[in-house]
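Consider the following assembly input.
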Amino acid sequence: MAIPAATLAANRTGAASRTSQPGHRPTGRRRVDLTYYVFLVPSLVLFTLAITVPAVMGVIYSFTDSIGFGDTRFIGLTNYIALFSDPAIFDAYLFTIGFALVTVLVVNVIAFLFAIGLTSMIRAKVALRTVFVLPMVVSGIIIAYVFNYLFSNSLPQFASAVGLGPLEESILANPDLAWTAIVVVTAWQAIPSTMLIYIAGIVSIPGEVYEAASLDGASAWRRLRAVTLPLLYGYVLINIVIGFKNFLNAYDIIVGLTDGGPGTATRSVAMTIFSGFTGGDYAYQMANATVFFLIALALALVQLRLTRGKVAVR
Amino acid sequence: MTAPATPHASTTARPGKGRVNMPVTLALVVCAIAVLVPLYVTVSMALKTTSQSVDGNAFSLPAPFTLDGLVEAWRLTNFPRGFAVSLFVTAIAVVGTIVLSSVASYAISRNWDRRFFRWSFFYLLGAMFLPFPVLALSQVKLTGMAGLDNPLGVAILHTMFQLSFSTLLYTAFLRSIPDEIEESARIDGATTWQVFWRLVFPLLAPMSATVGIFAFLASWNDFMMPSLITSDPAQQTLPVLQSIFQTQFSNNYNIAFASYLMAMAPAIVVYLFTQRWVMAGVTQGAVK
């Protein structure tokens, strides 16, 4: 079972990363087989057209007064200056960053507990893991619609039956509480991948470490605190950074739950950017997107630092 | 690299000395049931009558049990068409991702000593740090200009957004394939093209499975890109089509949930059969 990782690990140790060792082949000025270019160049061309060109175009547009069509002229940093004094943009960033922080915390605590549980001596381990990973494969917008029904119909019904005052009305219609629903659904979907990364970390801790701790009379709680947690430090960092980066892009689930409402209480940055299609402030939202990109880039650099130059995704 | 990052390595358990921890097992079973609640609700609502589905109690069992919701959802959303569009987009994205990233990774890893190939690797990886919202406005404009504001355009963009992650996985795997196998094939007169397709590509199968499943899930479940890129509502994918139940048919809950069920079922079925690769992919992607 688990062919890819197992094979990868087994072979890694044997054949090491020879391609990264300079002078491995009798290279010299060997001519590169043309086939290699045939293999690589189509990807580079498509990638440039689909990713690089739009990225550059976006940055250029952000310095113009374009409304998406018609005459366009350069207006320098005007969009950026306006951006920093726009309360709607500020609110969107505040909401998105706050939401991302809370969600990261919730997701990591629960995912960690699940990972500990699933790696201990339990029954029905395989079946339980299958269930816990399931939310990862369900479409975000659709599960948000399902939760939408639960939050706006079933939860108020339940709350009035047992008399839970503030919950008797849909929390999605409450500007102060709507964000909690978004955290719940996002967490439901994001916990599996975070948990799998923690599981990978936990199984990488050699069993002898625990045996030694047990022999020294350490309780289960003490083993968790003094052995597992410190050894998983790197995994915690990776999960926090990856999670935060993903949650900043929040869109699908918000569309399915509140569509940014009530009012603009749960409008994420991605939603403000997309408003550039209709609001006539195309170039302005390009500037917004550029600022958003710089934040994503800064986080990516932090992530690269944490993983010591080796790349991590998802 | 944390070596045994496999889901099943966890079966070799922690301390405990062979005793089953019943309290933990029970706690996890309770949590698993909580995780399943939204999915149970989807299934049970889909099988209710319209009058039962509006009573607000999502947790009751269907009484009477009916397939009307499914039949109506099939008709109302034009399910066969939505399914065909989703399948078209996903199939191109999966095949495109596997083919493009495997050949590109092969070229990169076998010419790592060449600056052009090495830099190409980092160039392709760069997209991992470019979230779609950042590119969306320009991509919508460009796909419109190129006549690609349709499912084909969505499929191409899906492929491009998968390229970074997939190239990363393939290059890591390719480094572990020993040189000797390829060398002997070359001595027998095989060209690079033949060596790759006849020898290397089959060896990449487990990695292709992981790459393919992630491309499938990302493409099948995506809402953001098709909703923005595709201009003709008649050519929308299944996740985007569900929005009609928020606007036009907002009180036909049983039909809405039947439609949700039909849209999410394929991904769940694929997951149940391929979960080992899904789980392996997460850890390989993150823990290098």
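Chain B touches chain A through 136 residues (CB under 8 Å). Ask yourself how this observation constrains the way the partners meet.
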